[in-house]
């Protein structure tokens, strides 16, 4: 249904509810001026809304009611039971009409002229009929009502629903119980909602932000001073804060359908205008986003869709020639993923021709001849985001998608989002938008550089790399002066954060770094281009409250804002985009070209080599699993391990994670014993093996069935890239194969079998 | 009777400065400052003012006061009449070095001016005011509106809006 009608109805139900309640109250206190004014105002709002929505009949009806009320208000008319009844009837009639509008989108056909006539008549007659004016609180009420003189049966259109109950009440008690009287008409129709001033909501969010900071602060104390009561209180604070934060955030959330619902119509109109046939498919329209973000992405989305129709989808005859169905398809998807909303706009049109884009960019002087030669197709498509590429001079009908795309990109990035585009010629184009749920509180990684802490929004993070010892010395190579690191065989340009921020003079950290023999690289992705930020240390991930930097620092590059950390100190939030631009990562087209197209096959490279995580399952026993299955490596205290029945578990990320202790699985005793016996063996072994060391190394892996399990291992060794050469078949259950890795015999574990074994 | 103005006084390199009392929100003790790389030189960094992030301005930088300049030697305690605080400073010299934050409103924003010491609030008659002489040059000329002639010293009046503008410059 139309958004406007929805709003109109919600508004009306709310106002009708008020009027009804106030009318009943007014019956009790006929002299209450405030009540009268309130009723008048509500009715006036309804009238205004009806006028705005062009529901003429309703407007005329409410207008008549308003006239009557205004005479009562101006004391030209004395309130009597008849007026109240008629006004209540008016409320019922409007309500009925609203139900009709809700169902059909149109005004009902019913005739209101009689009611209008009655309202008008009352204005003039009631004054003379003084005998009708009754002291409403007196016992007479019951008598006058029991013989209803004023409401002929043909006026009461739906009286059976509401009025008799009120009147029964009245005749029994002589008075209306105002608590029971207001029939919750409005509540029955819509979920009750109140409208809150957006400024108030902003203030609430700020306060919740403060609370989050205080919470962080308290939690930090908690780890220092170990007092039971304090611990409990701070845990409670933690919980309350988190819940409050979520609830307040929710108040600002709106489903994306608020903007999407308009698209099918718009697409239809555009398609007709351009003589094309387009089908729309929408999925995930109830995905919720912060109101401010919804507004910010509205125009960019419209723009992308317009481009899809305009330049993506071909004319029906062209489509037929290339073997596609005549009518093109535009699909809109929205879904939540790890704190972000993903929006995908997919068309099955002509796609983007990278060669044409490159030629155009070259002719516009946006890229150099050298860049022209080195640009990969993926990069070439990204050219459409270049400012200046979007000129009125269309590239061609086929590939002229650049119009205003830089604006789209800037707008999306303004709210902390990213746009990605991928296209295949003749097959179509996919726009992927990744947008944070909200702007106020974001997850971030805290790093230290040159003695200061900085926050990097989780949004732009790809991975963390730590080089130690020999690796730290030799891992970083130079192409002339530009430092690079070989990340899975590709060169990753490195940016030293301290140098970029011109901090190295003060701390001389860059020299110390080589002595420390530890290099921390934060791999961030900006515009599909990964680069490594070298920092002194990586501290923690935290939810941070974004605060603006103010006018004084608005021109300072490199930072997106500031936040307050747990210890009360201020930390700056890095603007990865601006850092990338300053360091010139973008213009390094040559390096970039090699880094492009790291697809899903990141770990499985062409020559059959695979990334493996190498560890000792049992002391002195080397084992490995494919790295693609590994979610995280964790170190957990022994005390965190719990037992439920036969299962060994740990609480991990608010979930229960089954733990497989490899030491017990591959214990020297044969596993072929009965289930019961196996269980006891496991228990004994896990105890003996777990108690030896205080910290337990755990590999969190995900199995193919989507289940997550933890592997307790004795030592994690390394990550290697190896071509698997199997030297022997399985030796024991739970092992897939045996291979020689780095000159040593290593068992490749069969996680599925292990998982099966533990779930039995 | 002539008009009077109220000024919050503070010391910076032994010079007595005054700020319109209406512009001064509060004075707080030293807060740890997070430096902002690439920021204008006058911005020493950011402080946490009860959850609000406020830039801290180095007034010495704004006024081109260099630490080594003999005119501004810190040794003289001529106007600091509290002997106990001197003793305190004698035993804890490091604390004495830490600047205080005068939190002021400027240009609809809140900024902190780093000062050495804060004096009392003075109510001064308008007639003792004089604009700065032509010989005052440089950035100081923009910032100093003029001087009130007190009995034992001059009170230089700072324009907070100008301080804001000057500290925004990147030179």
TrEMBL record, chain A:
The modification Phosphohistidine is found at residue 44. Residues 145-179 are annotated as: Disordered. Residues 176-439 form the Histidine kinase domain. GO terms for biological process: chemotaxis. It holds the Pfam family HATPase_c. It is an enzyme of class 2 (transferase). InterPro entries: Bact_Chemotaxis_CheA, CheA-like_dim, CheA-like_homodim_sf, CheW-like_dom_sf, CheW-lke_dom, HATPase_C_sf, HATPase_dom, His_kinase_dom. Residues 145-176 have a biased composition (Polar residues). It catalyses: ATP + protein L-histidine = ADP + protein N-phospho-L-histidine. Its EC number is 2.7.13.3. One of its GO terms (molecular function) is phosphorelay sensor kinase activity. Residues 1-101 form the HPt domain. Keywords: Kinase, Phosphoprotein, Transferase, Two-component regulatory system. This is histidine kinase.
TrEMBL record, chain B:
Residues 4-169 form the CheW-like domain. InterPro entries: CheW, CheW-like_dom_sf, CheW-lke_dom. This is Chemotaxis protein CheW. It comes from Aerosakkonema funiforme FACHB-1375. It comes from the Bacteria. Pfam families: CheW (PF01584). SUPFAM superfamilies: CheW-like. One of its GO terms (biological process) is chemotaxis. GO terms for cellular component: cytosol.
């Amino acid at each position: 249904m139309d958004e406007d009608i929805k709003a109109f109805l919600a508004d009306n139900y709310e106002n009708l509810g008020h009027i009804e309640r106030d009318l009943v109250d007014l019956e009790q206190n006929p002299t209450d001026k405030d009540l009268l004014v309130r009723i008048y105002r509500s009715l006036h709002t309804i009238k205004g809304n009806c006028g705005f929505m062009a529901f003429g009949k309703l407007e005329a009806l409410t207008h008549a009611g308003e006239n009557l009320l205004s005479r009562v208000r101006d004391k030209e008319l004395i309130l009597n039971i008849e007026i109240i009844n008629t006004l209540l009837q008016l409320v019922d009639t409007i309500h009925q009409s609203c139900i009709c509008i809700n169902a059909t989108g149109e005004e009902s056909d019913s005739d209101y002229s009689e009611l209008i006539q009655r309202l008008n008549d009352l204005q003039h007659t009631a004054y003379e009929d003084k005998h009708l004016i009754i002291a409403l609180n007196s016992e007479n009420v019951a008598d006058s009502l029991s013989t209803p003189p004023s409401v002929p049966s043909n006026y009461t259109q739906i009286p059976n629903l509401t009025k008799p109950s009120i009147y029964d009440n009245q005749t029994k008690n002589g008075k209306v119980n105002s608590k029971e009287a207001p029939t919750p008409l409005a509540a029955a129709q819509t979920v009750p909602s109140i409208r809150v001033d957006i400024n108030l909501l902003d203030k609430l969010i700020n306060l919740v932000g403060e609370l989050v900071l205080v919470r962080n602060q308290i939690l930090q104390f908690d780890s220092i001073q170990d007092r039971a009561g304090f611990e409990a209180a701070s845990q409670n604070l933690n919980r309350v804060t988190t819940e409050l934060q979520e609830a307040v955030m929710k108040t600002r959330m709106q489903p994306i359908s608020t903007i999407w619902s308009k698209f099918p119509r718009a697409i239809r109109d555009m398609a007709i205008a351009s003589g094309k046939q387009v089908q729309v498919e929408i999925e995930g329209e109830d995905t919720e986003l912060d109101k401010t973000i919804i507004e910010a992405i509205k125009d960019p989305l419209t723009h992308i869709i317009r481009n899809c129709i305009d330049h993506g989808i071909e004319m029906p005859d062209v489509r037929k020639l290339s073997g596609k169905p005549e009518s093109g398809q535009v699909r809109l998807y929205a879904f939540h993923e790890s704190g972000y909303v993903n929006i995908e706009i997919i068309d099955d049109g002509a796609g983007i021709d990278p060669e044409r884009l490159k030629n155009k960019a070259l002719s516009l002087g946006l890229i150099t001849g050298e860049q022209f030669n080195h640009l990969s197709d993926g990069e070439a498509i990204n050219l459409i985001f270049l400012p200046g590429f979007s000129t009125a001079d269309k590239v061609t009908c086929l590939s002229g998608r650049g119009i205003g795309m830089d604006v789209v990109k800037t707008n999306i990035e303004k709210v902390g989002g990213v746009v990605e585009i991928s296209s295949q010629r003749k097959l179509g184009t996919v726009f992927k938008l990744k947008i944070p749920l909200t702007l106020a509180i974001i997850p971030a990684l805290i790093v230290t550089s040159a003695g200061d802490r900085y926050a990097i929004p989780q949004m732009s993070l790809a991975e963390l790399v730590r080089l130690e010892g020999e690796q730290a010395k030799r891992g970083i190579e130079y192409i002339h002066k530009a430092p690079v690191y070989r990340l899975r065989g590709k060169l990753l340009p490195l940016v030293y954060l301290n140098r970029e921020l011109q901090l190295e003079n003060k701390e001389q950290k860059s020299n110390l770094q080589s002595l420390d023999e530890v290099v921390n690289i934060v791999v961030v992705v900006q515009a599909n281009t990964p680069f490594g930020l070298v920092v002194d240390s990586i501290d923690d991930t935290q939810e941070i409250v974004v605060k603006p930097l103010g006018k004084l620092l608005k021109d300072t590059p490199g930072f997106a804002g500031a936040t307050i950390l747990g210890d009360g100190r201020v930390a700056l939030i890095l603007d990865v985009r601006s850092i990338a631009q300053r360091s010139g990562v973008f213009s390094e087209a040559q390096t970039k070209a090699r880094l492009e197209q790291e697809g899903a096959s990141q770990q499985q490279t062409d020559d059959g080599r695979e990334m493996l995580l190498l560890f000792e399952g049992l002391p002195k026993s080397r084992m490995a699993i494919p790295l693609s299955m590994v979610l995280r490596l964790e170190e957990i205290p022994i005390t965190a391990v719990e037992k439920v029945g036969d299962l060994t578990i740990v609480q991990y990320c608010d979930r229960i994670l089954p733990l497989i202790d490899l030491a017990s699985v591959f214990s020297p005793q044969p596993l072929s014993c009965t289930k019961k016996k196996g269980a006891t063996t496991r228990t004994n072994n896990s105890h003996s093996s777990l108690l030896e060391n205080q910290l337990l190394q755990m590999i969190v892996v995900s199995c193919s069935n989507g289940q997550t399990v933890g592997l307790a291992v004795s030592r994690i060794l390394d990550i290697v890239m190896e071509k698997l050469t199997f030297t022997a078949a399985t030796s024991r259950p739970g092992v897939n194969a045996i291979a020689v890795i780095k000159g040593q015999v290593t068992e490749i574990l069969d996680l599925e079998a292990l998982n099966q074994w533990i779930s039995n | 009777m002539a008009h009077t103005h109220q000024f919050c006084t503070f010391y910076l390199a032994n010079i007595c400065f005054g700020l319109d009392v209406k512009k001064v929100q509060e004075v707080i003790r030293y807060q740890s400052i997070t430096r902002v790389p690439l920021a204008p030189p006058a911005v020493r960094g950011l402080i946490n003012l009860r959850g609000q992030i406020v830039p801290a301005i180095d007034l010495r930088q704004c006024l081109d006061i260099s630490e080594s300049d003999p005119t501004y030697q810190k040794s003289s305690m001529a106007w600091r009449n509290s002997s106990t605080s001197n003793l305190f400073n004698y035993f804890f010299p490091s604390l004495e070095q830490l600047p205080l934050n005068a939190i002021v409103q400027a240009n609809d924003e809140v900024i902190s001016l780093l000062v050495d010491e804060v004096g009392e609030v003075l109510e001064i008659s308008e007639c003792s005011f004089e604009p700065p002489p032509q010989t005052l040059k440089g950035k100081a000329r923009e910032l100093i509106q003029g001087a009130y002639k007190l009995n034992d010293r001059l009170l230089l009046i700072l324009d907070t809006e100008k301080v804001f503008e000057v500290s925004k410059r990147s030179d």
